[in-house]
Amino acid sequence: MLRARSTLADARRAIGQLRAESLPPADLEQAVRQEAERFSAATGIPCSVQIELPEAVPESVTENALRAVSEALTNTARHARANSAWVEIAPLGNALRVSVRDDGTGFELAQQQTQDHYGLLGLRERARLAGGTLEVSSAPGRGTLLQVTLPLSPPEPAA
Question: What is the pTM of this model?
Answer without folding.
Answer: 0.79
